[in-house]
Structure formats: C-alpha cells, structure tokens
Design a protein that fits this description.
The structure is a homodimer. The first copy, chain A, is α/β, with parallel strands linked by helices. Chain A has 2 domains: 263 residues, FAD/NAD(P)-binding domain; 128 residues, D-Amino Acid Oxidase, Chain A, domain 2. The first copy, chain A, has 8 helices and 23 strands. In chain A, strands 1, 2, 3, 10, 11, 12, 13, 22 and 23 form a 9-stranded mixed sheet that branches. A 7-stranded mixed sheet of chain A has the order 7-8-6-16-17-18-15. In chain A, strands 4-9-5 form a 3-stranded antiparallel sheet. In chain A, strand 19 and strand 20 form a beta hairpin. In chain A, helix 1 runs parallel beside helix 8. The two termini of chain A are 13 Å apart. At the A-B interface, helix 7 of A face helix 7 of B.
C-alpha cells in the first residue's frame, strides 16, 4: 500500500510499498518542472480526473535539466507574441510556489557594437556597481538592460508543484522507469541492490486515458522507441561551469555573446549558449586547455575563450573547468524542433499520448505551456494570460473513461 | 634512394626507399585536392623553390574528403564576390587536368514555394526529361535551373595535380605521417606488418622554410596539437549514400532541401546537407529506421525521411542505407570557421606555417584558394581570374633560405 496523508494523493517511494493500481485517467511521466507543473495545473483545472505522476528518480529529481536550469526570467528571451504568457509565468513564480528564491535583479546584455535600445555600458554600470570588474567596457561598450529580470530556482518550482499536486490528490510513483504502450504504460519499479546496482524489482501494466510524456530530453527518444513515432526534436548537452568571482544579492545577471553569468551561491554560474543540437550517439567528453584535459566540453570552452578579453574573470583561476566531465555539472537539454531558440511546446504523439517539452526557453515560458496542456486536457478554454485565440478547446471525454482499479 | 623519372621529382612510396633529405623550401602536408593543387601551382609559379609533398596514404588517398566530394560545380554555390574565381575553377576543371570526367549538365534546385528566378518545375522537367519520376512536381512545384553546372571527379583532379607537380619536379613522400615542429616537420614513415598493423618504420627530422598544412578536416587539430595554435575551424562527418535509380549521361543534377542528387555510376550519389559542425569527441554512428539499425547517421536519415514525399525514390529499396556505418561511404569534412557555408580558406598559423582548408564549397572554389596560397608564397601579385584587390603581395624570402640536403 502507498503512503497516505489525510486528504492527499498516495506516494509510492520504494518497492516495499505495494502498487496495485490498474488505471488512471491521466498519467504524467516525469516530475521535472514541466511534468510537475502540468500535474498541479491539471489537479486545479480538472479535479475529477484521476492522476498519477511517475518519476524515474526522486522528488526532486537530481539528474535532469530542471535542477541545472539557469532560473533566469528575462524579457530578452521572450519570443514575439508570447509576452502575456511570460508575464504570467513571472507573476506566479514570484507569488505562487512558496520560497523558490525568487529575486528580481537587472540583466545586462552586453555588446561590442551599438544595438537597438542599448546605452553606454559605463552608464549601465553606474546602475549596477557590482558588475564593474567583471567586464571590460572597452570590449563591450554597449548594454541593454532588462530591469524586470529575475532569478529563481527551477528545481524548487518543480518540487513545490509536485508536492502541491500530491496535496491536491495526485498520486505519485517514484523510482519507476516507464515504457509507453498503446493505451497505457508498462512500469519498471526500480530498486538498488547491496552492490549499488539499479535493477527492476517488478513490472506492472497500467491503463491510462491520456499519457503525458514529460521526460525532458529523453521524451522524444522514448516516444520514438516505444510508440514508433518520429519527431523532429533534438537535444544538446549543456554544462554550467562555476565562476568563483564574488557576487552578492545585489549583483546583476550579465550576458555577453550568448553566455549568461547568473549570480548564485556567492559566485556565478555560467550558462553557455546552445548553438545547435548534438548528433545522435554523441557522448559528452571533456576538452583540453593548452593540452591539459578539462571537464568542460570543447565547444563550451571555445565560447569561454572567445569571451576572455571581454569578461576578464574567465581568464583566471576563478573559472572552474575541472579535470574530467564529472567535475562540471551538465545535463541533456531538449531542443524543441531541434532548434536552440524554440519555445517550450506540447503536441499529440498518438491518440492518447502527448509530449511536453521545455528546452532552452523553459525559464520564461515553461509553466505557461504546461498550463496550456493541462487546460486542453481539462477542456478549459480560458488561459490566465488571456483567451486562446483561434483554437478549438473542447472538453475531452476523459472522466470516467478508465475503470477505477 | 627514391624512385626517379627523367626530369621529374623523386617519389618515395615505401620504407625500402631511403629518404635522406634534410630540408625543403616548402613542404605541403596532404595530397588531397587542396594540397596537390597548391603543389602544382607552386611549381608553375615558383619553379626555383624546392618542394616536397608528404602524404599519409597513397596517391590518390582513399580516405579523405576529396575522394567522396560530390564534384558538383554550380553557380548556386558561389558566394557573392567570388564569381570570377569560380568561373576560373570551372574553366581549368574542363581544360587543364586531362580526363577528370568533367560533364556539363544542368542543376535543378527544387522548392516547395516560389523562389527568386524560379520557373514551374513542369517547365524545367520538359528540359530535363530524365528527372521525371525522380520528384513530385506537386511537392516541389518551383525550380531554379543552373545551365552552367557540371560534375567531375575531385579524386581525379587531386591525382592529376599530384602527378603534374611531380612531373614538374616536386618530390613526393607517401605513407608518411607528419608532426609539425617549429621550423619544420617530424616524419613517421609508415609500413604494414605481416599482421596488417600499421607501424612507424623510422622517424626523420626535416627543416622547411614554409609548411602548408593541407590535411583536410585533420588540419586544424594537427595545428592545435603540434603548434599550440587555436583555430575556430570545425568539422562534420558527411556520408554519401547511393540511390540506385537509373541515370544516364543526360541526367541533370537535382537538389531539394539542401540534398543534392548527383548522377554517378549509372545511379545517383546523395550528398546530404551539412547543417553544422559535429562536436569534439563525436564518433559517427549509424541510425535506426523503424527500429532496424542502418549505416546512415541519424541526422542524415532525418533529412532523407523529410524529403521522401518530394523525392519518392528515397522511400524505396533503391536507397542504400546499409546495415552499419562501414556500409555507407563517409568522410570528415572540414568546416572553415566552423560554418557549413564558408568558402575554402588559407591563413597563416605561425611564422612559416599555413593552413589550407577546402570544406563544403571546395568543388567550386577550392582550386582558386589553393592557387591564391601558391601565388602568395611565390610573391606573384596577379591572379588568373583578375588582380588581387587590397592585398599586399610581396615576394617572400624563401628561395635558398633552407640549405640543400
């Protein structure tokens, strides 16, 4: 029997807890930011639907892209036409999930040449004295400032959403690997042996009215492998090296040449640009700096080297490049449509299966796209950022469709 | 002693032939299309310079990108401002290298929507009846036609240039691996053991007034590893699958969605688009077609699948996707500046060392860039396609600089 809390959903954390359910109206696979948020919104919008969240790891998951996501909200990242969604995301990040370390702080986007809306970097620095010393105003004489930018912890958002969904009576099955099947799922409940091997303890068939594949960068591959559906999505391995140059709560976010310096833990976390997807079969590997093996992949190293004159701390020992790949935090990032600039997306895979993808712009738009899918499944036409234009939203015949276990 | 031909340069093909030279004015590393052409032009422009070509394999080399290059000359591939060079390349391909299977034939670039200068595909097909049946005019209703396009064999050009250079008294050292050193080279003369292992038979130091690194996609890495020079060049693994749909000498070249169908050997060779560089450490690997392992890499497979409606033969057994990577010819292609659309380039690496790179546009511009480097080394200001604008061309102090061995 799963663990119970009065009035809350059940949680199966380990294989010692018997899981005997046979079907749900909706199963969400993956409790990262996208899946957990979709679960919470679905509980709010369609409380009558029986909902299960299945997660391969724990809550929070420590391996996916959510935990490494920069957590930078900036209007500079919002594609045209998506402003209302992004503003809604910013508002609920600030208000709705408890302490997700939301901190409003300006973002300075720095340029070697004049750009639309730019001001002299020296003027921008007068407003952000903490950034003096981090950059060379001679190499980057122009800046655009986003006064509405903010940082937060996407991992904390995922945790709050997951816990909120369970409090709102979603069930949660942890440490379980999923295969998609027509009309449902096959569950492999995982356990760890005395020799630290992860093995399948038992398998379990489950019917589901709808399955939402929210497995991050693994989602498109799972859809293809299990359902035989081809998608055009890609992925890229993104690392987030540390820069141990002191920062305080007053430090701005800096961006130059696509690289974002995000104040965090008293220093900076570097978020390198994603230029394009990595090829199928690519195994991330560390690069070399003047002949010495390091943990940062070569392409990222090249981006950092290119910026060393403009951002002098990158050329110092403050930059942690590590000795091997394991030394530098990194994760696979989904690239919707294989593009590095594509917003988060959801779409139907087969009848009854949906793919939900975050990707590089999940920090500004992910929650809105998760909401959109939840509302679509709930048959709700309204969106909190405005009505859905040009889209037929109809109530899907879900409730009661699947027999109660 | 190397093999001799009256009036020609010496050739060392195997380790049984003693190589006792100690220095050359110029050493060209790599006898692919770029290196061999540069060698020939340098013999013509500066016959006083003592010249050695060093090649890791034989002549022709069977492993590099030259042998797999499409051999398609088309005005559609010529970047703005490079038209005179491209026209010169086309002329010498047709006239100057003997039988390189030069064949003028139109190229049809096909589009789903109207493009500048396009005509209805049905009109273009009236001109190229052989292409009927290869494509769906409904999916690709518009076409641009290059009446001046031509196909040829880049491998035959490299062979003719290499042989021509030797006839003009260039020396040639085959089966030799090179390390770049300050002021010269270290040569590893290779041999094959009874157990088919390739081993270094002897090493040899060589002084060189100038070294030209023409090692194709391996050049930037060698420059970095041996000379400590960082370059921004990249590479991509490009495969050329076969399409066994019959073609004759009258067949046009077809192009759609970046994929080129080049009539060859009574069928077609497919030249997929290169979208971007492959990451450092990528090991090419075959993809899967509806679950079955094939020899074509996934990214190329996706490009082909996307075009199956527009080019119906791609959806038939005429397409040879193989069972493993070894079944589909492929080679690493240099990407100058890491870009898939960058023209060939040469530039100085260190004092005395130059990099010569072909890449995706080598078919239309490679020989001109090889000529340009040869002329620069020879101190010749004129170019056969016109004077060099805005560039100081001065005679370099090469001749007699290096002692005769």
């Amino acid at each position: 029997m799963g663990g119970m809390t009065a009035g809350a959903g059940r949680v199966w954390a380990h294989v010692g807890q018997t899981f005997a359910e046979t079907g749900y109206d909706v199963v969400i696979v993956g409790a990262g930011r996208m899946g957990a948020a979709c679960a919470l919104f679905l509980r709010q919008l369609a409380p009558g639907l029986r909902l299960l969240i299945v997660e391969r790891g724990g809550l929070p998951n420590e391996e996916g892209a959510t935990i490494l996501a920069p957590g930078v909200w900036t209007a500079f990242d919002v594609p045209p036409g998506r402003e209302a969604e992004a503003a809604w995301v910013r508002r609920i990040l600030e208000e709705s999930f408890g302490d997700v370390q939301f901190a409003a702080r300006p973002l300075l986007n720095l340029y070697p040449e004049e750009a639309e809306g730019s001001v002299p970097t020296t003027d921008a620095l007068a407003r952000c004295p903490e950034a003096v010393g981090l950059l060379s105003p001679r190499a980057l004489p122009f800046a655009r400032v986003d006064e509405d930018a903010a940082t937060y912890r996407p991992g904390a958002v995922a945790l709050a959403c997951g816990q909120g969904a369970v409090r709102a009576r979603a069930d949660l099955l942890l440490n379980t690997h999923v295969h998609l099947t027509p009309g449902g799922l096959c569950l492999d409940r995982l356990t760890v042996t005395n020799t630290h091997e992860i093995v399948t303890h038992e398998t379990h068939e489950l019917r589901a009215g709808r399955v939402i594949v929210a497995m991050g960068a693994d989602g498109p591959h799972a859809a293809e492998h299990d359902l035989g559906v081809h998608t055009g999505h890609g992925r890229a391995y993104r690392q987030a090296p540390r820069l141990n140059t002191p920062s305080t709560d007053a430090a701005p976010i800096l961006r130059a040449g696509g690289l974002t310096l995000r104040p965090q833990h008293g220093g900076f976390t570097l978020i390198p640009p994603v230029h394009h997807r990595d090829p199928h079969g690519y195994v991330p590997t560390g690069g070399r700096l003047t002949g010495v093996p390091v943990g940062v992949r070569r392409e990222t190293l090249e981006d950092l080297i290119r910026l060393m004159d403009a951002l002098p701390p990158l050329g110092t020992e403050a930059l942690e490049v590590g000795h091997s790949l394991a030394d530098v935090p990194g994760a696979w990032l989904a690239l919707p449509e294989g593009r590095a600039d594509a917003p988060p997306v959801h779409h139907s895979l087969t009848e009854g299966a949906h793919l939900l993808l975050g990707g590089p712009l999940a920090d500004t738009l992910g929650l809105a796209v998760a909401y959109d899918l939840a509302a679509e499944l709930a048959g709700v036409r309204e969106r909190p950022w405005g009505k859905v234009p040009f889209r037929t939203a109809k109530k899907l015949p879900l409730e009661g469709e699947v027999g109660r276990g």
